[in-house]
Write a structure and sequence with these properties.
This protein has 302 residues and is an alpha/beta fold. It has helices at residues 3-11, 24-30, 35-46, 55-69, 76-85, 92-102, 180-194, 208-211, 213-221, 238-250, 260-275, 289-301, and strands at residues 141-151, 154-163, 168-175, 201-204, 225-228. The chain is 44% helix and 12% strand. The longest helix is centred in the C-terminal third of the chain and has 16 residues, at 260-275. The chain is elongated.
Length: 302
């Protein structure tokens, strides 16, 4: 019996024996083999029906493949949604147990900060959103916000624009400062991508960048309506805050950026390569923003 076969034999013990056996990680450590090597072997072996692999081993291999694909950011809900979408009838309780027993946990987030300068005399726009976070169609309401990312060259600042309908990031920009041009560039990028209809609401906090003359001019020239959160209304921009929470947990806090260019590249890959097109959103019925928009538009095109 090979070392990997021994580990598999121990891992396959029944419910009454599970509390008495070491975890896969512990077994690999004791036997001086890597856990990744064991799972690679298990994946190869499970492809052969003659090997007698169980349904649970098949699910384990698929779960680990999913985590590798999404860079270890999925918890049990999204893991289950991904497996169900790929034909595995598996419950969340079972998923949680397999995660726990095999160490398939997502990498945990670190604390992050955000700042808003609302102490200005530029005037405030009324709150047109009023914590109504659902819309009936794309490009009815966008929300925008700013956060910052540390690099070896100092802080860089990220401005994003999100469509509330699909939670898709439709515009974003990064700079080494938080001047008004940062949010203007993100907004202009969204306008170029979506060509929004007149009357679309753009909701933000009360920061000076969003109250600036140049930002309001872009809104006015494109016939967009400005909306700002009320004083102390911390939930008004919840969709943007949710995106930043995902960004920090699944991208920013998982690595160190030596340069601002590295931060830009990682943010671009996360937004355009993962978040918009791949990441499963609980508020969208575990679909990605792009898939959600495409799926909702199918009946109209028929």
């Amino acid at each position: 019996m090979s070392v990997f076969e021994l580990i598999r034999s121990e891992a396959a013990k029944g419910p009454q024996q599970r509390k008495l056996r070491p975890s896969v990680q512990r077994l690999c450590l004791l036997l001086d083999v890597s856990t990744s090597g064991y799972y690679d072997w298990l994946a190869r072996m499970s492809e052969s029906p003659q090997r007698g692999f169980s349904a649970e081993e098949r699910i384990l291999v698929k779960m680990r493949a999913v985590q590798e694909e999404v860079d270890w950011v999925y918890g049990s809900r999204r893991l289950r949604a991904e497996l169900v979408a790929n034909g595995e009838a598996v419950g969340r309780r079972r998923i949680r147990r397999i995660v726990r027993e095999n160490g398939l946990y997502p990498i945990q987030k670190k604390r992050f900060r955000k700042t808003t300068d609302s102490d200005h005399d530029l005037g405030y726009s009324p709150n047109l959103l009023e914590q109504e976070f659902t819309t009936n169609a794309p490009d009815e309401v966008w929300v925008s916000d700013i956060t910052y990312i540390w690099t070896g060259e100092g802080w860089c600042y990220l401005a994003i624009v999100i469509d509330l309908y699909s939670r898709r990031v439709v515009g974003w920009a990064i700079a080494d400062n938080m001047k008004a041009q940062l949010v203007v560039r993100a907004l202009q990028r969204a306008i170029t991508l979506r060509s929004p209809p007149p009357g679309l609401i753009v909701h933000t906090d009360r920061g000076s960048q969003y109250a600036s003359a140049v930002y309001r001019r872009v809104l006015r020239n494109n016939k967009l309506r400005q909306s700002m959160s009320g004083t102390g209304s911390c939930y008004d921009n919840a969709a943007a805050e949710s995106f930043f929470a995902s960004l920090k947990k699944e991208c920013v806090s998982r690595r160190s950026f030596v340069t601002r260019t590295e931060a830009f590249d990682a943010t671009r890959d996360y937004i355009e390569g993962f978040y918009n097109g791949k990441r499963l959103h609980s508020t969208l019925g575990y679909m990605s923003p792009i898939s959600y928009e495409a799926n909702k538009r199918l009946p109209e095109a028929a």
